[in-house]
Amino acid sequence: MSKKTLTLMSKDKQLFNIEEHLAVQSVTIRNMVKEDGASSVIPLPRVDSETLALVIEYLNRQQAPEEDEDYVKKFVDERGEIPTLLELAQAALDLDIKKLMDAACMKVADLIKDFTLEEVREALRIENDRTPEEEKAIRDEFQWAF
Amino acid sequence: MAERKNTELSLLPEEIVLFQILPKVPGKSLLRFRCVCKQWQSFLTSPLFANIHLHHVTTTTNNNNNEKVVFHLKGSHSFQTVDCHEDGLTTTMPRRYPFERYGSLLATPVNGLVLVMVGAVVDGQWSKNMILWNPLTSEYKKIPSPPFDTTRYLTFVCALELYHTCSDDDYKILIITTDRNVYVYSLKSDSWKKLESTLDFLERIPYAAADANSLEGKLHFRTSLRGGRYMITRLDLKTEKFTKIALPPSCEPALEVMLAVVRGCIQLTVFIGGHG
């Protein structure tokens, strides 16, 4: 008997096949399979095809459990661009793949920890709503940390 | 392509950034990040975030929060912190204490909070105060005087511990005095209370040493009895009742017993007397 395969559909309507026993590492997919057998295509309207390809690559990994930790770390290290990591974290959150989400977020935290304030705002698309005076007050209070 | 990704990023739900990424950033960077925007400042200074961050630091081994050591700079009113990395040490610039005058460290720090004794001259009188201090944020809280004669503070106290209780998320200070009274301060209620129920038990203990270790919601005190005998006194932090654990007979008579908690076990180092 051949292994059961599921089809996932990205936001831009691309289809990806994955064996069910690997796909159910995602708690979201596991619950869908449990509920209705998920015979048809599973749509993932918030995940684009590039990110979904990464998620599939991750789910397909063939790692011994004791090497898994290192593998996940290396997996996100090799995709060290913040926009990619954020997309990956978002997809992992939606699909409820905790290890992948934690690793992607840890990598982002690692990258931004030494960023200047301007770099943080740019990387995470945050608008500066502080006046220079307000910023200076915090700088003065925690001078040693700047 | 970078352009396309960037537009999508503005839709990033806050859950990822605020609840998943920021808790993994070290405390020192988070102080700077208060400047990023107003939302970050109010979030980073909220008790909710403090709990999420603490949970991350205490439950993951591979986190960004390096061990920190606080050093008092002798002859000055300043201190500095040292971050211990895998590849060495970095020292931060000296900072002034936010309170009057540094005296001494009173208990093992808990979750980055340090309990110190500070002295100051108030109305021509020398007074001592306990201060619970966060060296990272400079915030501190003066602890009200315990309900006993504090002029003899240090000679009068035979055990003093700072600990965190998970069940009600409170920080507490425990003092056992040389006359066998036990007082507990709760940061939440900002008040001291005397543990009445424990008196009988403690009366039989001639001396409770000041080193205690927390394990699974209980504080363990190394307790010395007469004639080179020791035992462990255990305080259940939830019920606030003392119990005792006898040492194996092979530990007697001991010259000295040291107690530590290593990987979820109580570890005793016993120096047996006799042949050196």
SSE layout and pairing:
The complex is a heterodimer of chains A (146) and B (276).
Chain A: E1 5-9, E2 15-19, H1 20-23, H2 27-36, E3 42-43, H3 49-59, H4 65-77, H5 82-95, H6 98-112, H7 117-123, H8 132-141
Parallel strand pairs in A: 1-3
Antiparallel strand pairs in A: 1-2
Chain B: H1 2-9, H2 14-21, H3 27-33, H4 38-44, H5 47-59, E1 67-73, E2 78-85, E3 88-91, E4 95-96, E5 102-105, E6 114-122, E7 125-133, E8 140-143, H6 153-156, E9 157-165, E10 170-177, E11 182-186, E12 191-194, H7 199-203, E13 207-215, E14 218-224, E15 230-236, E16 241-246, E17 254-262, E18 265-272
Antiparallel strand pairs in B: 1-2, 2-3, 2-4, 5-6, 6-7, 7-8, 9-10, 10-11, 11-12, 13-14, 14-15, 15-16, 17-18
Short description:
Chain B: It comes from Centaurea solstitialis. With 146 residues, chain A is mainly alpha-helical. Chain A has helices spanning 20-23, 27-36, 49-59, 65-77, 82-95, 98-112, 117-123, 132-141; strands spanning 5-9, 15-19, 42-43.
Written account of the structure:
In chain A, a hairpin with a 5-residue loop joins strand 1 and strand 2 (15-19). In chain A, strands 2-1-3 form a 3-stranded mixed sheet. Chain A contains 8 helices and 3 strands; from the N terminus they run ββααβαααααα. With 146 residues, chain A is mainly α. In chain A, helix 3 crosses helix 5 (82-95) and helix 5 (82-95) runs antiparallel to helix 6. With 276 residues, chain B is of the alpha+beta class. In chain B, 19% of the residues lie in helices and 43% in strands. Chain B has helices at residues 2-9, 14-21, 27-33, 38-44, 47-59, 153-156, 199-203; strands at 67-73, 78-85, 88-91, 95-96, 102-105, 114-122, 125-133, 140-143, 157-165, 170-177, 182-186, 191-194, 207-215, 218-224, 230-236, 241-246, 254-262, 265-272. In chain B, strands 1, 2, 3 and 4 form a 4-stranded antiparallel sheet that branches. In chain B, a hairpin with a 5-residue loop joins strand 14 (218-224) and strand 15 (230-236). The termini of chain B are far apart. At the A-B interface, helix 5, helix 6, helix 7 and helix 8 of A face helix 1, helix 2, helix 3 and helix 4 of B.
